[in-house]
Amino acid sequence: MVSRRSNLPTTGEVSVTELKSYNYIKSFFELPKLSPEDEKLPFFKRFQKLREIKSKDGTGATNTKILMRGVMLFQAPTMLYAFLWHIVPFFFSDYGPWAEYYMRVLCCYICINGLANWLCVILYDPAYRKSKDNPFLQVGGYDQPPDQFVPMIEQSSANGNGHCVYDMSNKEALPWEYCKDCEMYIPPRCHHCNICKRCILKRDHHCYMVGNCIGFKNQRYFAVLAFYAMVTGLVGGYFTFKYIQLVVWPQLDSWAYLFFPVAIWKSLFGAIPGFHVLLLVHLPLEFFFGFIGFVYVTSQLTVISSGKTLHELAKKVPVKSTLSVNKHFRSVFGDFWALNFLFPMTLIFRQSDDGLHWDGIKIDHNGNEKKNYGDYENKTV
Ligand SMILES: [Zn+2]
Ligand SMILES: [Zn+2]
């Protein structure tokens, strides 16, 4: 008899799919080997070393990406279900059918808007590469910068990265640099990301929560996503907490059930209903996302209003902006920037910059002690 399993490609006894899932689960718990000297370091230093090794080989980032996308795909539909069918009727039925109806519409709107911005952050590629917008990008040719540049004016960095060339058509502009990994000249404010393995236009930071870099093309969606994460996390978390307090708590036999792994285990034996377990899983996730959303929406709005990026602040890149706050917002969100918080306005209001030329952004010669702009570049995570 031929079993279904024998049709799968196998390595000995185990199928490839099984092997892949086994390796994936193992990679979460497996720690890389440290050298004998590093083993003697104090606990915190050892932890930092392990983190460095994991971020270099990329497994840590890939695992987090799959985990966080999985959590998001679980959380959004189940939370919408919990609110539409249980939490909203419980809290708003006293105010009449219309109140309940409008609250349901509001829940759907917040969920759709959050998901739309999440997809935009993932699908809009923030990398600097040959594309419809940028068909003439030259790859390779370290000695031959594009025609409008003066070659090799400044060799600023010791590791061979960060050779600056200057655009002759605009003498005021920040220099372009050479990225050794991508083998091409990259525009000012573009930085290489070691996790994405690409140069990111106006790189802000690599976001582990969504699993890709935040840069010129997707920062507008990221700021809005952080806002919706904050609203759903904190307001949704509050209502879930009240519902648990009023409905779930009186039915629990022990406070230990509030700890969701215990609740999941007990629900297998029918001790508590599945829906109550779902809420107990939601509650810590909601407050977690709410807190992260709050941190990011405030930091993004601050950084955008100052005209800088988190990367430039973290690496102390000496740039300053001569533009107004309004221009900074238009550069990220396009015109009428606040409308983006109502719905993604991609096609209607385009960003006012092209991501390559930064006329109002200049080198800040009094920024800090180091003199060369290129000294700060290409030493990214
Ligand atoms: Zn690069
Ligand atoms: Zn990245």
TrEMBL record:
What does the domain comment read? The DHHC domain is required for palmitoyltransferase activity.
The record's section on InterPro entries has: Palmitoyltrfase_DHHC, PFA4/ZDH16/20/ERF2-like
Q: Which UniProt keywords apply?
A: Acyltransferase, Membrane, Transferase, Transmembrane, Transmembrane helix
Q: Which biological process, per GO, is one annotated for this protein?
A: protein targeting to membrane
Location in the cell reads: Membrane
Annotated membrane topology: Multi-pass membrane protein
Regarding protein family, the annotation reads: Belongs to the DHHC palmitoyltransferase family.
Q: Which Pfam families match?
A: DHHC
Q: Which reaction does it catalyse?
A: L-cysteinyl-[protein] + hexadecanoyl-CoA = S-hexadecanoyl-L-cysteinyl-[protein] + CoA
Top EC class, one word: transferase
Lineage of this protein's species? Answer: Eukaryota, Metazoa, Spiralia, Lophotrochozoa, Mollusca
Indicate the principal place this protein occupies in or around the cell: membrane
A cellular component term from Gene Ontology for this protein is: membrane
Q: Identify this protein by name.
A: Palmitoyltransferase
Q: What EC number(s) does the entry state?
A: 2.3.1.225
Q: Which organism is it from?
A: Dreissena polymorpha (Zebra mussel)
**Transmembrane stretches, by residue range?**
66-89, 101-124, 221-241
Give the superkingdom in one word.
Eukaryota
